[in-house]
Structures are given as C-alpha cells and as structure tokens.
Backbone:
C-alpha cells in the first residue's frame, strides 16, 4: 500500500511540473523575470548553458496517417542544477536563451520542497491567470467575427 501512495505522489508531482512548464512556455520572458524577482533565487549552476538549435517537426495527415517530416523549428534549451541537487530543464520555441534558462530554473525550483510553494504562488499562478485571460480574449475576438450559415430547404414537389 505504501508503494501505491508514493507512486500517486510522484504522478501528482509530475503532473504539477508538466502544468507549470506549459504555463511558462506560453508566457513572455519579461513576465517570467518580473514574477521571479519576488523570490530569493537559490544558488544554482548551469549544467547546459542556454543554446539555440533546431528540431524536426513531424506531422500526420488527418492526425492518424503515416508520419512525415514537416520541417524544422528553432528552439532554445537550458539545464540548471540547484545547490540542493534538483535539476531543471527549459525548452522554448524560438531563439530566446534567457527564457529557456528561466524556465529551467523554475522547473528545478518546482521540484524543490523549499521553493515549490513560493514558485507556484508568486510565478506560476499569476502567469496561469494571464495565459487563460489571453486565450479567453482571443476566443472572444474570434467569436465576434463568427458567421452562422444556414440553408433553407425549399419545398418543391
């Protein structure tokens, strides 16, 4: 039974980490940096200095067809380790090495017992609200331009 509880805790931690990384990936680097200023950042070292590179983007026809190489996308990545041992990874589309490093730092801090609560409250939660607000605003703008087409059935004999 104790093993099942630790697996549930691990799955919960991974889900929380995944959700945090999704929010950070969709946020602007300036916003991330501003929210991180509210936290005393821990000592950390670069495991992988921020760098730019390319990844192959794969696609499928109809979502379930045979995969094919669609093209390449530029990404930035970084890896950091906190002095307490947690390792964080950051990836972002485009050539923003600073954003990749901030995401990696947040990823490591989310895994830390000491910093997880502060990062969630001061960084992730406000950014999540901003991302949701931005999505809702775009959805409302798109809905305002929606046109409903309908046809009348003619009753010809």
Residues:
């Amino acid at each position: 039974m104790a093993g099942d509880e630790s697996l549930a805790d691990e799955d919960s931690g991974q889900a929380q980490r995944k959700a945090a990384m999704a929010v950070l990936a969709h946020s602007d680097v300036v916003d991330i940096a501003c929210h991180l200023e509210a936290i005393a950042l821990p000592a950390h070292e670069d495991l992988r200095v921020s760098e730019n590179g390319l990844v192959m983007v794969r696609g499928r026809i109809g979502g379930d067809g045979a995969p094919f190489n669609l093209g390449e996308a530029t990404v930035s990545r970084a890896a950091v380790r906190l002095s307490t041992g947690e390792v964080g990874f950051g990836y972002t589309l485009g050539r923003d090495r600073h954003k990749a490093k901030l995401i990696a730092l947040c990823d490591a801090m989310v895994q830390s017992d000491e910093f997880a609560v502060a990062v969630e409250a001061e960084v992730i939660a406000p950014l999540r609200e901003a991302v949701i607000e931005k999505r809702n605003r775009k959805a409302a703008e798109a809905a305002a331009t929606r046109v409903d087409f309908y046809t009348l059935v003619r009753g010809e004999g």
Remarks:
- Helices lie at 2-25, 29-36, 97-111, 116-144.
- The first strand starts at residue 44 and ends at 60.
- The chain has four helices and three strands.
- The first helix runs from residue 2 to 25.
